[in-house]
Amino acid sequence: MTQLDYILQQIVNAVSLGSLYALVAVGLSIVFGVLKLTNFAHGDVMMVGAFGVALLVGIGVPFPVAVICGIAAAAVAGFLIERIAYRPIRDAPDVARLLTSLAVTYIIENVGILVFTSSPRNFPLPDILNTSWEMSNGAITFTSINLLTIALTFVSLLLLGWFITRTTTGLGMRAAAEDMSAAHLVGLNVNRLIIVAFIVASAYAGLAGILWAAQAGVVQPQMGFTPLLKAFVAAIIGGFGSIAGALVGGYILGALEIFIVAFLPSSVSSYRDAIVFAVLIAFLLVRPGGLLQPNREIKL
Amino acid sequence: MATPSPVLLSVENLEVNFGAVRALKGISLDVHAGEVVALVGANGAGKSTTLRTISGLSRPRGGKIIFDGKPIGGIAPSRIVTLGIAQSPEGRRLFGGLTVADNLRLGACTRTDKEAIVRDSERMFMLFPILKQRLKQLAGTLSGGEQQQLALARALMAAPRLLLLDEPSLGVAPLLVRHIFSALAELKRQGMTMLLVEQNITLALDLADRAYVLRTGQVALSGRSAELRDSERVAQAYLGAAT
Ligand SMILES: Nc1ncnc2c1ncn2[C@@H]1O[C@H](COP(=O)(O)OP(=O)(O)OP(=O)(O)O)[C@@H](O)[C@H]1O
Ligand SMILES: [Mg+2]
């Protein structure tokens, strides 16, 4: 394998991992935008999507149909979380809202453990997605699921871009994120926007959860924790609450993680997560508003 | 002098509290259709609170707000816009990360009559030609005067029957203040009903038919602009608030 092939391979890996982070981070930012709330349950919505697919495929539903149903299940979960847990405390102090968000996470994960036990289950990936492709005489390989991740992320993010720049509802979501009382004043139905935000964000989390499980090969109730944490970091790097920022942050974080392991000696790269968080802290010190919002302080 | 046109907005004994702060202590005022009414007074007198409560952003603790015969106190802000009241708020409150075009589009978000919306944006460009050149620009990158024009246009895009204006001259260069007030005068000629909050009393009284002077949450004085313009008592009402 030549040096160039190796680099190309790492870039493919970075884009694939970054895509997952971006998908999750985008949803976190959408919800944060309209509610100014860090929705920790976002990771558990990923789990709902992944389990949905695993269960449906288990009873013989074709994989693509199961994926669509899994995304829908995640969207419904997000809708219910907003309705049941967050709406009653919408005007409560920040601390109460943050605690509620944590509580929702624990409740969903523990229900998941009760029903499915905490041991990992196989994620049923169709054979066609288990194949790998080779380039440069085998120097670069990508698995089909890698390609699918990149392709689906690309398509779904284009769709999101269209939604938030071309539709009144999408523009309204960004407007409400910027200035809630101005959003009220122009006559936006903010309640409806918040519901839509949860549904959209959760659908993206569902897709991310399915792809995450497909790459890992397993599903389990706490599977959302790690991606949530990473997406959180990605969103902060990009500028919390900014959808474009979440995207950029996701890809930067994916690249950072892959490149640390690929290009640094293993004595250093085993501290990958420590390095990532050091970068995060440095970021918060230098640009508290993240990459895309240099002038804004983040309040969690 | 009796005003022949019907009452469009009637505020009766409006009270608003913020915790222990009594911001409005029973304010009453009327705005007739086609009229421009000014609301003036010192800092903290309760002018913005009055407008925000009419728009549904603050809940009244007591009193009534009646628009076009219907009580609207305490209903959702989006319903109030749909009923025909739009506000250009203090400090403009534009969506700075959105383009000028998208700000205008959101101004019309309660409407479904596509053709009329297009016609109204053409009217906005006649009134504020600079906006047409800035359509693709982010609202946050406009100058203060341009932003104020956009804030007015955004409110007008709701096709309101009553326009609430909170300090349209704030943070605007003097030359552009003149431009903005001549646009407001043009709107008045076209028959737009307005309730105008303005620190610059001369400008406010020149435009308005009548005015109310607020002092610490109460109406201290009211009357026709021409009468108030020369009145010593307006200055006194202000001084009273400052002490
Ligand atoms: N959200 C709020 N919370 C607490 N107090 C408030 C709030 N909004 C207004 N007040 C208080 O209510 C009173 C009236 O304020 P308001 O903003 O209506 O005054 P104003 O006449 O618009 O003044 P200005 O000319 O400075 O804009 C003030 O004492 C103010 O401190
Ligand atoms: Mg004010």
TrEMBL record, chain A:
Membrane topology of this protein: Multi-pass membrane protein
GO MF, one annotated term: L-leucine transmembrane transporter activity
Transmembrane stretches, start-end: 12-35, 47-77, 98-119, 139-164, 193-214, 234-262, 274-292
Biological-process GO terms, alphabetical: D-alanine transmembrane transport; L-alanine transport; L-isoleucine import across plasma membrane
GO cellular component: plasma membrane
UniProt-annotated location(s): Cell membrane
Keyword terms of this UniProt record: Amino-acid transport, Cell inner membrane, Cell membrane, Membrane, Transmembrane, Transmembrane helix, Transport
InterPro entries in the cross-refs: ABC_transp_permease, BCAA_transport_permease
Keyword Transmembrane helix among record annotations: yes
Keyword Cell wall biogenesis/degradation: no
Family: Belongs to the binding-protein-dependent transport system permease family. LivHM subfamily.
Record's protein name: Inner-membrane translocator
Lineage per the UniProt record: Bacteria, Pseudomonadati, Pseudomonadota, Alphaproteobacteria, Hyphomicrobiales
